[in-house]
Design a protein that fits this description.
15 helices; 2 domains; 393 residues; Aspartate Aminotransferase, domain 1; Aspartate Aminotransferase, domain 2; five-stranded mixed β-sheet; alpha/beta
Length: 393
């Protein structure tokens, strides 16, 4: 583990050996690398000599991003992918064989739910959903001899469920299973799952890591043996590699990640308090509020609550739509973690493929609105929210 502190590592980790040197890490926009001779090529491909093999497998710019993320997440190694979903898919593909099972909280992003419920089922692997993930006994009672790992998204999208990661890690180690944590919402600026006992961390770097909605990306951070197994294995035939340019955009995003996360948390707390007192709002999901059921867990294991929250308006689906359509500053889009404040209706967009029954189990109602609070002046965010909620009067 690098002994330098977070902000220093977010700027300097992963820099090495560029000729000529550069203030920013160079973009190696290439798919292949010429060799001195056939002997050198064979040595590099066998791993006997440092070097790069092919753009789908490795790239100097992408490698710098991987090294920086590994340092920030306190893991031995990391491998970047084309998106957050491809990171989760390749990790599951690497760990599971036909007939295997795994456990996952049902409070996950809609794409993750679809992959686990349908995609992996077609490959012969089975997910056991934990519908009360705050209950450690619920996890333990579902572990079988075929269980290969535990998966949790913490905090979750859009409910903001926060798992007690040390307790979940203790259970995983008791049964000799890896604990995988999706740390997209917090980022390593606010939470390090490995320090709390997790074994593997995944991210959609498309969100806060990049920070400006310009580049898709994903990453798996974990033990070197696992990461190299994926690099020598499924990434070669699946091909879900991160482009050099997107890796560069993510590297730039990391340089000011902690500053952005501080502002995200500040603005989100102000908006959460405002919504919590609004007469047209029936409930607010934000762990920073003392009334939130996960407030104490958040205080134990996170440095901040990030920018994601959700709230329910009083009324019907049509009322939620009326509010969303009334925003003038806040952007209506299916994204989160960027500098702009974004509103989304999860039940009809990001999580719609779950179906009514699973949406109900996950607590995603027709009147739930998700907000990814941006970096604008908080007074402007509040003013736009106020005028939109007035449409319910």
């Amino acid at each position: 583990m690098d002994e330098r502190r977070f902000n220093t590592n977010a700027i300097h980790a992963g820099r090495s050996g560029y000729q000529p040197d550069s203030m920013t890490i160079p973009i190696y926009q290439t798919v292949a690398y010429p060799y001195e001779d056939a002997r050198e090529a064979a040595q590099i491909f066998r791993g006997e000599k440092p070097g790069f093999t092919y753009g789908r497998w490795d790239n100097p710019t992408v490698q710098s991003f991987e090294q920086r993320m590994a340092v920030l997440e306190h893991t031995e190694s990391a491998i970047a992918t084309s998106s957050g979903m491809s990171a989760i898919f390749m990790l599951a593909h690497h760990l599971l064989d036909k007939g295997d099972e795994f456990l996952s909280s049902n409070l996950v992003y809609g794409g993750t739910f679809g992959l686990f419920q349908k995609g992996l089922d077609r490959m012969g692997a089975n997910v056991n959903w934990i519908t009360s993930p705050q209950n450690i006994e619920a996890w333990e009672s579902n572990i079988t001899p075929r269980t290969k790992f535990l998966f949790v998204e913490s905090p979750s999208n859009p409910n903001l469920f926060i798992a007690d990661l040390p307790e979940l890690a203790k259970l995983a180690k008791k049964h000799g299973l890896p604990l995988i944590v999706d740390n997209t919402i917090c980022t390593p600026a606010l939470q390090n799952p490995v320090d709390l006992g997790a074994d593997i961390v995944v991210h959609s770097t498309t969100k806060y890591i990049c920070g400006n909605a310009s580049a898709l990306g994903g990453i798996i951070c974990g033990p070197r043996e696992l990461v190299e197994g994926i690099r020598q294995g499924c990434i070669r035939y699946i091909g879900a590699s991160l482009s050099p340019f997107n890796a560069w955009l993510n590297l730039i995003g990391l340089e000011h990640l902690s500053l952005r996360m501080e502002r995200h948390c500040h603005n989100a707390m102000i908006l959460a308090r405002y919504l919590d007192e609004h007469p047209s709002v029936s409930s607010v999901n934000y762990p920073g509020l003392a009334s939130n059921p996960y407030h104490k867990v958040y205080q134990k294991q996170m440095k901040g609550c990030s920018s994601l929250m959700s709230f329910e308006v009083k009324g019907s689906y049509e009322d939620a739509v009326r509010v969303i359509d009334a925003f003038k500053l806040l952007v209506h889009a299916t994204h989160l973690g960027t500098c702009m404040t974004i509103v989304t209706h999860p039940a009809s967009t990001t999580h719609s493929a779950m179906g009514e029954e699973e949406l109900l189990k996950a607590g995603i109602s027709p009147v739930l609105i998700r907000v990814s609070v941006g970096l604008e002046d908080e007074a402007d965010i509040i003013a736009d929210m106020e005028q939109a909620l007035q449409k319910l009067n």
